[in-house]
Model the fold of this input.
Amino acid sequence: MNRIPYLSASAILLVLLSACSTPSGQPQKGSEPVAPNEVVDFGTLYAQNCAACHGAEGRGGASIALANPVYLAIVDQNAAHNVVANGVRGTSMPPFAQSAGGLLTDEQINVITSGVFSRWGRKGILDRTNPPSYAAKTAGDVARGEIAFGTYCASCHGSEGRGGSKASAISNDSFLALVSDQGLRTIVITGRPDLRAPDWRGNVPGKPMSDQEITDVVAWLSSRRVPSPGQPYSASNDAQLHDAEHHHSEQMEK
Ligand code: HEC
Ligand code: HEC
Done:
């Protein structure tokens, strides 16, 4: 019993001694926590906000690799900045700008976007190639897209995109419900090198896809979207779902 006061006395002594190591009890230099909106270190910002979906080192995540020099050579830096600030509606890519309901300052968004390009981009990587444009120039032709899919995609994703031995199903409504048309186009152009998905040049060796073929394939995939994805009994749920979606998008617009 009488060991307890002894123990606590030495504990107090220890605390006193360690407090003495910093003069007059001031916090050590650099030990003050930084307010979340004052973090401007790329690595920290990326790890806290992006890594969960785009992978720890910009690859290997559920969403596309950002550490893909082919992607960074094709996407316009302003377009990327805009996506980070405002998100992509209807997908899991959230808006980060405070003006769009996010938590990051404009400066932080600049640090992240320019950091992605300066760290992971490689200047000149697409020199002497004739890369497709980032955004589609036309609406695309669904029928031609189906043919292009057979030529360039079915060998891995299976006939009609129902899944094959080398790659997953991509024409099912649940997958298509979570990806935008630009998201599809980006994947077709840049591939997913971290998952061994080829870019627009590598689907059929020696036969790069034309810009138009890419646009058409996306049009075909997009034509497979349904209003109530994942609903086997869509007729009865349709009205309710549309109602819910309507309210939801009204809220998003506010
Ligand atoms: C919750 C998951 C999630 C988080 C967190 C996330 N992203 Fe995304 N991001 C996505 C998805 C999904 C897409 C594809 C959206 C689509 O279909 O167009 C995407 C798309 C993008 C694109 C555009 C790709 C294109 O097609 O050009 C950029 C750039 C991007 N994200 C950057 C970032 C950055 C930078 C961060 C961190 C500040 C971040 N993302 C955080 C899921 C996420
Ligand atoms: C050489 C095989 C191969 C070819 C050809 C190919 N892909 Fe892929 N693709 C993959 C692999 C591997 C993945 C990543 C793993 C997975 O989703 O199965 C992938 C992923 C994708 C994804 C993302 C799927 C997801 O779950 O995020 C899309 C979309 C896609 N491919 C579209 C296409 C389209 C469209 C074509 C034709 C223009 C095509 N791919 C041609 C192998 C291929």
